[in-house]
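Project channel, design review

CF: Before we commit to the Casuarius casuarius constructs, I'd like one complete example in the thread so the newer folks can see what an input/output pair looks like. Taking Alpha-galactosidase.
RD: sounds good, go ahead.
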Amino acid sequence: MGAWGLALALAWALLLARGRALENGLAWTPPMGWLAWERFRCNVDCEADPQNCISEKLFFDMADRLAEDGWRELGYKYINIDDCWSAKQRDASGQLVPDPKRFPRGIKALADYVHSRGLKLGIYGDLGTLTCGGYPGTTVDRVEQDAQTFAQWGVDMLKLDGCYSSDKEQAEGYPKMAKALNATGRPIVYSCSWPAYQGGLPPKVNYTLLAEICNLWRNYGDIEDSWDSVLSIVDWFSAHQDVLQPAAGPGHWNDPDMLIIGNFGLSYEQSRSQMALWTVMAAPLLMSTDLRTISPSAKEILQNRLMIQINQDPLGIQGRRIVQEKFHIEVFLRPLSQAASALVFFSRRTDMPFRYTTSLAKLDFPDHAMYEVQDVYSGKIISSLKTGDNFTVVINPSGVVMWYLYPMAQPWRLVKQQGPEGGVRPVIL
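CF: and here is what came back for Alpha-galactosidase:
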């Protein structure tokens, strides 16, 4: 089956799957926002490092940046707390409480402020005796209580990790938390780490069940601030795309982890590559960088409007790697709504820019079609590209060229319709 036949089959499958998705009406497109972990980890030393420790100041600051620097209007709306926010013990009633020194006003006050800025607040929990950082976990008997606590605080997303829990506890606890969150009556996006603790693949991971339980899920290990880490994630997702791609869709997404653009480990070209590859994979776009000091070039990559439009495409089909050349060029395709497509030409080379020649026909696009093409990064437009036309893209080492393709009207698919001033204009049937 060619790329377009596959796209049609997937579109029908997604429409059928919507009825089986988690019934909270949330995350119909991949969530976008900011997450603390990769950049700030479990830094709790606010005396030595008050600007960068896990405290209410950090999240107030990031909320201000999302609201004031153009992020919110582009869809980056979640401010997500990760591990190490809580006190080391629950209170006398058994309720989770934030660290009183680092969050003196409490999570409810932080949520109220985030909401006042037109944003949403996410928080972290762990389905185990302890979180990964050693803070109180949410054991199975505490699930309903903690769900109610998060709802009362005004939380809008929960990431539930899996450290210090058994397979049995995960199998019981992850579905139980989905029901508990829904029972609060508050819309809370539910991010599960369950598959990552089960190896990410069937038979241990049941993706049909996951889509009924979670809005997004971590499949694989944590991202690190390095190009090797990005490549390992891309390799794993590509190697297992036949299993992973059908699992994703509106309301339920594979999560390859955070965007590390703007940190220390990626070059400019590699940053552009991560953004393009995460977009073509229909990944949540959760930045983990310091938005107070981000460079103009990193900000430009993350705020690319056409890129975000592609990521948020309502059809919700995850892209696939469709070509893997022996000379280390790869091609990824994501079918989009209205018969559009996104193509990513990705170079794993480390020597020099590579001239890659191919055609849409070689990439299984429909015969005798014609497209308008826009380069997602440069904005350059190629008009009237026919399926059979050879073209060449120049891809920098560890870089990408990304195209947005939109089908143009074909002569045999046109009718004449009365236009302004008595003229006629073509209309696509």
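RD: helpful, thanks. DSSP finds 14 helices and 18 strands in the chain.
CF: The chain has two domains: 32-312, 320-407.
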